[in-house]
Amino acid sequence: MFRNVSELIKLTEERNIPISEVMIQQEMDESDKSREDIFAEMERNLDVMEKAVEDGLKGVESRSGLTGGDAVLIQNYMSDHKPLSGGVILEVVSKAVSTNEVNAAMGTICATPTAGSAGCVPGVLFGLKDRLNPTREQMIRFLFTAGAFGQVVANNASISGAAGGCQAEVGSAAGMASAAAVEMAGGTPDQSAQAMAITLKNMLGLVCDPVAGLVEVPCVKRNAMGSSQAIVSADLALAGVTSRIPCDEVIGAMYQIGERMSSTLKETAEGGLAATPTGKALAAKIFGSAVEKE
Amino acid sequence: MKFRSVFDIIGPVMIGPSSSHTAGAARIGKMARQLFGRQPKWAKIHLYGSFEKTYRGHGTDVALIGGLLDFDTFDERIKDAFKQAEEAGMDVEFIEEEGSADHPNTARIKMGDDQGDFELVGISIGGGKAEITELNGFELRLSGNSPAILVMHNDRYGAIASVTKVLASHEINIGHMEVVRKEQGKDAMMVIETDQRIPEDILEELGTCDHILQVVTIAD
């Protein structure tokens, strides 16, 4: 079993296979399941992601009323304007937002690696669909590659906002998505690792400060920004740009930062945006009205 | 390493909004239900740390109740679990604990019915994964990833051998085993992880072994 990114990359070189294949082979070893079963399970997850993207693009609203409808706004803007940041980026962003809006509305999603960060991976995957025309198998492989990087982060740092802040959630998710995008675009395993490192470096220190403790503000927009960054990092890595700090050391730095982060900034809704005047007013309004209803 | 499957990372499929506070909580509830062996008539759920501070917004309460009702993380009935519990005749109370726990996402569940009660502590460790860290006062670490049996027994010689002998006679392999006790010569507990699910008749046979007080099981 690979313990870190450098071992993962070494396995791809020794066996001359892509990252997704290392992950599939390891899952077969660990679970004693057949390749077909593992592929089928991942395809079910892919189906859930696809449905969540579609549902969000039809327009949803959360119970609190804090989030919902932005994916539709972005899609409408794209159809009657020429976006400043280009079509692919906004396609990715709208689908990431769509997924997180469905999540906030207590819809069905697939955690990647968590629910609060569930937008980045499917956003990048389905946002790139028209650009790269992947086969269904390539789309499933995208998820295995993303999973391989997520597993390294989970085992060496954290993927929980309560333990490591948002850097551990949207940071990990955006990194995973960028690494998987590189493989789907035909890049090398090392380029995937570079994309992961470049993405995560820019996410270091990101706190988890949900308004009213809800997975809505700023989570939905953090997924929007995380997914856009994933695409940019993937392009940098494909261009041959490398990270001066190796990927595993970036993950180590993330762990250390998470350890030192105040608990008020780790999903407790006691600091950051949650503690702003507006954040507190929203919390009072939501829980005030929730209590009245009961 | 805690995360061994790709589906710990890409998954679970779940009802939103939070993998640690909703899906992980549902799994804690479901493990509690499995360990208790039946649906409890009442449950008192103490919440600590981030669970205590944000449970309403994350649906941690409905997820824990859903788990106690044996719902999976993706079961849409989680959304109205309070109503489901009422219909199922299960009385649930939440207690917000100010004190800190070892893990930010911790729940202590006391549950029972006419036949007995049970107390355990569960933690949600991220990405929808959960562990049981305490059961009836015994410290342990139970992930629910592989089938496991928990045997409450008297701390006497031969108790462990009698259990492993039964398992061996049914050709059941033990993957991991742990024995804990509170005090020498008093109550003790074995936690045995096996490669396959243990059928009901073997559990009953284990219950009849010398010095065995109670046998419970968990299988994912």
UniProtKB/TrEMBL annotation, chain A:
Pathway participation: Carbohydrate biosynthesis; gluconeogenesis
Domain Serine dehydratase-like alpha subunit: 15-274
Reactions catalysed according to its record: L-serine = pyruvate + NH4(+)
Cofactors: [4Fe-4S] cluster
Coiled-coil ranges per UniProt: none
Record-listed E.C. numbers: 4.3.1.17
Domain of life: Bacteria
Family designation: Belongs to the iron-sulfur dependent L-serine dehydratase family.
Name of this chain's protein: L-serine dehydratase
Phylogenetic placement of the source organism: Bacteria, Bacillati, Bacillota, Bacilli, Bacillales
UniProtKB/TrEMBL annotation, chain B:
Gene Ontology MF terms in the entry: 4 iron, 4 sulfur cluster binding; L-serine ammonia-lyase activity; metal ion binding
GO terms of biological process kind: gluconeogenesis
Family: Belongs to the iron-sulfur dependent L-serine dehydratase family.
Superkingdom per UniProt: Bacteria
Residue intervals of the ACT domain: 148-220
InterPro entries: ACT-like_dom_sf (IPR045865), ACT_dom (IPR002912), ASB_dom_sf (IPR029009), Fe-S_L-Ser (IPR051318), Fe-S_L-Ser_bsu (IPR004643), Ser_deHydtase_bsu (IPR005131)
Gene3D superfamilies assigned: 3.30.70.260, D-3-phosphoglycerate dehydrogenase, domain 3
Pfam families per UniProt: ACT, SDH_beta
Native organism: Tenuibacillus multivorans
Residues spanning the signal sequence: none
Swiss-Prot/TrEMBL keywords: 4Fe-4S, Gluconeogenesis, Iron, Iron-sulfur, Lyase, Metal-binding
Pathway this chain belongs to: Carbohydrate biosynthesis; gluconeogenesis
Listed name of the protein: L-serine deaminase
Cofactor: [4Fe-4S] cluster
Reaction(s) this enzyme catalyzes, per UniProt: L-serine = pyruvate + NH4(+)
